[in-house]
Each structure stands twice: as C-alpha cells, then as structure tokens.
Amino acid sequence: MTEIAADGIEAPVKAPSLRTVVVASSAGTTFEWYDFFVFGSLTGVIQKTFFSGLPETAGIAAALALFGAGFLFRPIGALVFGRIGDRVGRKGAFLVTVTLMGGATVAIGLLPSYGQVGLLSPILLLAMRIVQGFALGGEYGGAAIYVAEHAKVGARGGSTGWVQTSAAFGLFAALLVILVTRLTLGKAFGPAAFDSWGWRIPFLFSAGLLAISIYMRLKLAESPAFAAMKAEGGVSKAPFTEAFGQWKNLQIVLLALFAIMSAQGAVWYTAFFYVQTFMEKFLKVEPATINGLMMAAVAVSAVGYVLFGWLSDKIGRKPVMLFGMTLMLIAYFPAFHGLAATLNPALSEAEQRTPVTVLADPADCSLQFDPIGKAAFTSSCDIAKSALANAGVSYVNEAAPAGQAAMVRVGMATIDSLDARGAPKEVAKAIKARVEGKIKEGLARAGYPAKADPKRMNLAGAFGILLIFVIAATALYGPIAACLVELFPTRIRYTAMSLPYNIGTGWIGGFVPFTAFAIVAAVGNIYAGLWYPFAFTAISVLTCLFLLPETKGRSLRD
Predict the structure, then answer these.
(1) What is the pLDDT of residues 322-358, one digit of tens each?
(2) Strands 2-4 and 10-12
(3) Can you give the CATH number for the domain in which 507 is found?
C-alpha cells in the first residue's frame, strides 16, 4: 500500500499492527454494545418519560415496538452494510456503523419528553432505536471480518475472540455507568433526580466514547484480503445475487444460521438476559442481588471468549462450539431448577410439599399471549392463571365440567375464582384484585414466599450455576467470528456472514426473554419457557454435528 508524498513520490504506508487492529475494532464494537445495552437497562425510566400521556393499550404496544425495533432492523442493517463492505471496503462500512450508533444514542439523551412535545417524542425515540439496531446489524460483521483478515492463519480464533469480548465489556460498562450515575445523583440531588433528568447522562456519555472510536478507526487501513482482491479486480458487483441467489453460497448461509447462529442466539440471550427475568419475575430475587451476580458473571465471560477462541486455534472451531451448545442443552432445565433451589429454596420446598392445581373448563381458558396489550383476560380461568403467573408459582391444569367456574387448589385448600367478563372496567379490576388477594393468602398459608429470603440464599451456589452458563456461552461464541469468516469467500464475506449472524442474535436470541415468558404464562410452569431456547439449541447441535465442516486453517483467499 502506498501514499503520495509532498514531492510526488509514492511512499509505502506502514500497515497497522495486529494489536492496533484488534484494539480499534473491539473498542468500537464495545462502544456500540454499550449504547445498545444502556437503552435496554433504562427501559422503565424511558417509558415514564416518553409514553406518559399515551392510553394504556397504546403505551404497551409502543413499549413492545421499542423493544423489538432494534432487533428487527439488525438483519436489514446487515444487508445494507454487508453490501457496502463487499463493494467498497470493510473499513468504511464499520466506520459508518459506529458513527450512526453513537449519534443515535447521544440523540436519545437530548430528546424532549412526552410532556414537552407530545406524540412527537415517542416517534423520535422509535426512530433512534431503529437507527441503533440498523447500525449494530452492520457493526459486528465488519469488526470480525476486519480482524480475521489481518490475523495469521493459526491465530484467528484468539484474535477474533477479543471482538467477542466487546459484548461483555459493553454490558459491564453500561451497568457501571448507570450505577455510578444513580448513586452520585442520589447523594447530591435525591433519588428522584435520576428518573427526572439524570437518566440522560449515560446516553450523553456516548459522545466521548464515539469520538474515541472514530479516532481509532480512522487510523486503520483496508484489510489485506480485501485490498488484494480489489487490486486483482475480484470485487463482487452484485453481493446479494452471489450470496443468496447462488445455491453454493446460499447453502453456506443456511448452514451458518442453523448449525451455529440458532444456538448462539438462544444460548447467549438465555445465559445473560432471560436468566435475569427468571430470577426477578419467578424467583422474586431483589434486583440489586441480580445485578451483582450478573456483573460478576459478565466479568468472567470476558476471559472466556478469548480463551475458547484461542483453544479453537489449537483443536478446531467445531469441537469447541459443539461443546458449548451441548453443555447448555444439557444444563437448561437442571440449572434453572438449581437457581430456584439456591436463590429461593422456600419456593422449591413449597412446590414439592404443596403443589398447585387449576381446575377449569378448558373452553374458559385463553392463551394469554398478547403482544399488543389489547385483550382483557377476565374469565375465571384467566384470572386464576394470571394471579399464579404473576406470583411466580407453577401449577398443573385439570379439566373441570363445562360451565363450571375455575378453582385453584393449593394442597388440600380450594379457592374459588370469579368471572369478570362483560363487567365494567373498574368492576372487573376489583374482581381480579379480590381473586388475586385470596390466591396470595392461600399461597402464603401453604408456605409460598412472597419474595426470596436473602438469609437462605446460597449466592456461591447460584454463581456456580451462572458459571456453567458462562462457559457454555463463551465456548460457543468465542470461536464463532473466526468460523464464520472462514466459511465464506472474501468477495461476499461481509454480506453473507452478517445476515445469519443477525438473524440468530437479533430475531432468535433477542426475543428469548419475551417469548419464554409468554410460554410460561400460557403453560403454567415457570420452567416451560426454556423449551424455546432448547429447541433452537438442539437444532444447532444436530446440524453442527453432522453437517458443519471444520474451518480451522482455511485460507481466506480461497
């Protein structure tokens, strides 16, 4: 590579070291994950600020739209930036992505509230969330490819493992900045200050991170593999057609999705996100305890990504990834049962000692899966099941004669439910509250705890279980970047690799918490939601075992 000096003579440009490449790529990706996680961690405050004037149904729908928009647009960003990366170059594509992501996050910190501009406020927020997801869709593929195309053949796993740590660093940084901001403002201005205006500080903090990231990435040159291909005239003129219109390439895209990314999305989001929902909603553990456990687990994971990436350079990508997904497949149900036993043993004891049964006419029971918050669920069966789900209590279903009102049996005691269909809204609300109160009283008499008792918690045991999740997730995720890069030819690598990655992480993984919780509410067993990630992990285990080739040592020029 050359540049034109002042005297008109071409002079060679010194290529950046691998360390510079890794640091610049990983730092930029860390900042982007930080931006994404700050939004997720402050959803409650954001709802109060931007949706305070909306009707209840519209507010729920808008909140769900915000949750899903970022994930929904990730594959679209993958396609757009993948094409740019394969046509123009890797460096330019992921320089744009970090700029978009950081700019959108800073903008969220400056947006007016609903009280100031009305409906324009949530519309602007939704637009910024879409930009975040769109940009993140193109970021990971660019960073992983850029590092892999600079690394030596025998060191790709370890080098790209640092890119994987970006998610851990980003999540940890987001939690830390929010925690420090809360504590500082709480001491200086009182606890209400953060919810009032202090929540904007973590978003505005991104401005500094954005400047650092842009500066570091501007120092980088184009990747050697792409530069050589461009010099030889081998750049793809139609990356979409080549990647998805030719079967020899499309089958690699499908293989990457089903053999690797289905499990990656399911495993990673279960290990680091759904487990938090499970501990808070079902086990009734205090948020501060959950945050402490998760920050410790995330800190350990940062080491795991690099360790397992390095190990894949020694023994191969496939055995390491297969180990990770198989470990999680085995651990799903016993490990979550173990969390219940270590964090809320009173709940586990009550379930064994005094099981709960819902006796109801099956025709009276609805599938309480309502993504837009419009249904009322006021039948006697729905009211009873809703009360138990909100209490985090598992139950079994037993059919009752047609037309009979639902009953909840807690051990030998029976609690009658009531029907509120057709009743005015306030009356229905009062009926539901009355039934829920009776059910809670019955559960309390049977020894079901209202919340986890800190004195009975085995935090060391719970952390040990979380470490199983960390090992599984990092063993799977650590070698993924190297494996995906090695699967695809250079001329369509950015486009073809980014799509399955973002479908797996964005659509399959991103909706693990939402879908798993909905399954629990429908079935009645607090562990039933695990069947969602279990199914996707099982698909990958089988596909990886029988169809995925070993890619370690492949030339990226082939």
Answers:
(1) 999 999 999 999 999 999 999 999 998 998 899 999 9
(2) antiparallel
(3) 1.20.1250.20
